[in-house]
Design goal:
mainly alpha, 81% helix, 0% strand
């Protein structure tokens, strides 16, 4: 690897790590403010729905910023291939930042509640965050790669894809939160060994969704781009 590429890789890795930390801190602050908006005695499901909305909204903003910075919002006078390459690089760095965010979230959970439960939470929550990040990135890709045309028309044409990606990310995140807390399938959670079975089933579903979205993301955004394209 040439020195310039080595420095660039280190800088981009640092950017992803710092962005993941800022995402965690920002979500923490927003969730604290969000709790003030909840009426006293609000059901736990409402709290979890609000927190999932805040986290997915924050991730959408972060991924959009990365995608635009490296893709359609970067230097002008670039060809379609360069835009696609830059957008794929930016979104991939954003996904890495989300992975850092999820890891910090799990470390914070372990610090607050040490024990094997933290390991089970890691198997559950890390893939959930990556699935949602991939769904958001796939929705954003038409916009940040400049495929929609000029800025105004591009945003309008990309809106259905962005909305679809966000809906999938939010629904997956919320369903996982409700299932992990026993609110989605209370009878299954309360049965003997139910928590372990839910963890196993959720881990399998997460792995399947992650595999499918990674393949789709590689096909749409990365293959022919910065990982496999010409240097």
């Amino acid at each position: 690897m040439r020195p310039f590429r080595h420095r660039q890789a280190v800088l981009e890795a640092g950017l992803a790590a710092i962005s993941g930390l800022l995402l965690y801190l920002g979500a923490l602050v927003l969730e604290g403010l969000g709790e003030l908006l909840l009426a006293p005695g609000s059901p736990e499901a409402a709290r979890r729905a609000l927190f999932a909305l805040i986290e997915e909204g924050a991730k959408l903003g972060l991924l959009l910023a990365f995608g635009l910075r490296f893709g359609a919002g970067g230097p002008r006078r670039r060809g379609a291939d360069a835009l696609r390459l830059g957008a794929a690089r930016g979104l991939s760095l954003g996904i890495a930042a989300v992975a850092v965010f999820a890891a910090i979230e799990n470390l914070a959970y372990f610090a607050a509640s040490p024990g094997w439960g933290a390991a089970g939470r890691l198997l559950w929550s890390e893939p959930v965050h990556l699935v949602s990040a991939l769904a958001l990135s796939l929705g954003l890709f038409p916009l940040v790669s400049g495929r929609g045309g000029p800025a105004g028309r591009g945003a309008a044409r990309a809106a259905p894809a962005i909305a679809g990606g966000f809906a999938l990310a939010y629904a997956w995140h919320l369903a996982a939160n409700l299932a992990a807390s026993g609110l989605l399938l209370p009878r299954a959670a309360e049965a003997p060994g139910g928590a372990a079975r839910l963890l196993a089933a959720g881990s399998i579903l997460n792995a399947a969704a992650l595999w499918a979205l990674v393949r789709l993301y590689l096909h749409k955004a990365v293959i022919g781009g910065f990982l496999y394209g010409k240097e």
